[in-house]
Specification:
The complex is a heterodimer of chains A (303) and B (169). Chain A has two domains: 2-125, Beta-Lactamase (2-Layer Sandwich), CATH 3.30.450; 135-301, P-loop containing nucleotide triphosphate hydrolases (Rossmann fold), CATH 3.40.50.300. Chain A is 35% helix and 29% strand. Chain A is built from eleven helices and 15 strands. Chain A has helices spanning 2-14, 19-26, 30-35, 65-75, 80-87, 135-141, 160-173, 215-226, 239-250, 264-269, 271-279; strands at 36-42, 48-51, 54-57, 91-93, 99-109, 112-125, 150-154, 182-186, 194-195, 198-199, 207-211, 230-233, 254-260, 284-291, 294-301. Chain A is globular, with a radius of gyration of 20 Å. Chain A starts with a helix and ends with a strand. Chain B is mainly α and 169 residues long. Helix content of chain B is 80%, strand content 0%. Chain B contains six helices and no strands. The chains are: A alpha/beta (303), B mainly alpha (169). At the A-B interface, helix 5 of A face helix 2 of B.
């Protein structure tokens, strides 16, 4: 079932490819489609698939620059204007929540990225929801059935965002804890992956998503506008984010956020996160570590 | 009796031809105005936000008439096909079907396919305004043409019919 869902996600992502490349991608055996993580296109080189940790070429013909342009046209539904803010951050989200990262020659306006032209590379990352990712920690984060303020911590690539998304979903649905209204400040669109106003990844029925807005401003807006019980944000990176979280905590809202870092000691070494710990905004710290092929979660009480 | 009936049919037929031709000229004016109105609507929608093209065109199709509705709906449908061609080719294909606009009207609309969806909203609105301006010019010319030639066709239809009747009788 899970394999089928993954293969279907691969086929959906491959649907944005121009016809020749799409045929190559869809010629992969179904088992491999289900394990594929990314499709990578580089002008002048054959398309590759990231599979089992390695890149493997698909076909022999090189990717043409026109095919990269066509990929952008198909993935954006011929609506570059609708995805310009995303493109200026170097990616775009397509139906299904799949994310296409783009590279090329930058066109700058007033010192900021205005466009990429011509395109030189694209990386289609196949979106996969890991339902139940939060099961190993949910009980400990919800004493008495109610979620406590929680900070999720890990180095990049260990699944902070995946865990955050699944926690939001569980809390919003009331799975394993009392259901809560969740407001999500999804600045980079990585948690819910809104597309045409609809979350492409499951974040639960009681979740309101604000995408693309700077986190600090977004958190305050959500607090004022959506009357949340839980306020969630991915990756605290700036002092303004701390300020916004601090104000939200003062309003009695439960906080749920992530941060980059190896462990608690790593956090205390950096001024921003040291301040975060000093403020005592979070009750639980969940540290994610790699354990063989899987993940290990450590839950620590901070107050 | 048969003669009289034949004469009436000839007179009626000629008049119908003349009036029909005059009506075609009026229809062209209306089609150009409807198309310009449709483009104005799309311009306004792009001023409000940046909806994806399929949603923008589908929404506009429901609020326009005549060739504008036909063009927008056709493009929105075509955009939904997974094996579709690029938008510029798709747009040109749909524009080519709009006979009511006349050749000049179709020529004015064609280049919009290179602009819609490809640039930011401000540039798209500028492109739409330029094409709308050209269509409005064409509709003014077509209206003048319709007044002038329309009357001629009507008069020719009536008088030609009368002339034939006199000849036949």
């Amino acid at each position: 079932m899970e394999k089928d869902r993954r293969a279907a996600a691969f086929r959906q992502a491959a649907g944005a490819l121009p016809p020749r490349l799409r045929a190559l991608a869809l010629a992969l055996p179904e088992g491999e489609q289900g394990r594929a993580e990314e499709l990578r296109l580089r002008a002048g080189r054959p398309m590759t698939v990231l599979l089992d940790g390695g890149e493997r070429p698909l076909g022999e013909g090189p990717v043409e620059v026109e095919e990269l342009e066509r990929l952008l046209e198909l993935a954006s539904q011929s609506s570059v204007h609708a995805v310009l803010p995303q493109l200026r951050r170097g990616y775009l989200t397509m139906a299904g929540g799949h994310r296409i990262g783009l590279c090329g020659t930058a066109v700058l306006r007033a010192g900021e990225l205005h466009a990429l032209s011509p395109l030189s590379s694209a990386d289609i990352r196949i979106a996969r929801q890991v339902r139940g990712a939060c099961t190993p920690v949910l009980d400990r984060l919800c004493p008495g059935g109610v979620l406590g303020d929680t900070l999720l911590l890990s180095p990049p690539g260990l699944g902070k965002t995946t865990l955050l998304r699944d926690l939001i979903r569980a809390v919003s649905e009331g799975e394993g804890c009392a259901p809560r209204r969740v407001a999500l400040a999804d600045e980079r669109g990585e948690v819910a992956a809104l597309y045409d106003g609809l979350p492409q990844l499951e974040v639960g029925r009681r979740t309101d998503v604000l995408e693309g807005c700077p986190k600090a401003a977004g958190l305050m807006l959500l607090l004022r506008a959506m009357n949340p019980q839980v306020l969630a944000a991915d990756e605290i990176t700036a002092p303004e984010d701390l300020e916004a979280l601090s104000q939200a905590a003062g309003c009695g809202v439960t906080l749920l956020a992530t941060a980059h870092g190896a462990d608690r000691a790593d956090l205390t070494r950096r001024p921003l996160y040291r301040r975060l710990l000093e403020l005592g905004l979070f009750r639980y710290l969940v540290t994610i570590r790699r354990a063989g092929d899987g993940r290990q979660y450590e839950v620590e009480e901070l107050r | 009796m048969v003669k009289l009936l034949g004469a009436a049919l000839v007179a009626g037929g000629c008049a119908w031809l003349g009036f029909r031709r005059a009506l075609e000229l009026k229809d062209r004016v209306r089609a150009l105005e409807q198309m310009a109105g449709g483009l104005a609507l799309v311009e306004r929608e792009l001023a409000l936000g940046a909806p994806p093209l399929p949603r923008l065109l589908e929404g506009a199709a429901g609020r326009c008439d005549g060739p504008a509705a036909e063009l927008f709906a056709g493009c929105a449908r075509a955009l939904a096909r997974p094996d579709r061609e690029g938008f510029p080719a798709l747009w040109r294909g749909q524009v080519a079907r709009l006979e009511a606009l006349g050749e000049e009207g179709r020529e004015a609309l064609g280049p919009l396919g290179e602009i819609l969806g490809r640039y930011d909203c401000r540039e798209q609105r500028a492109g739409l305004a330029a094409v709308r301006g050209r269509l409005e010019e064409l509709s003014v010319l077509a209206r003048a043409d319709s007044r002038r030639r329309g009357r001629v066709y009507e008069a020719l239809g009536l008088s030609g019919g009368a002339f034939l009747v006199v000849l036949l009788l």
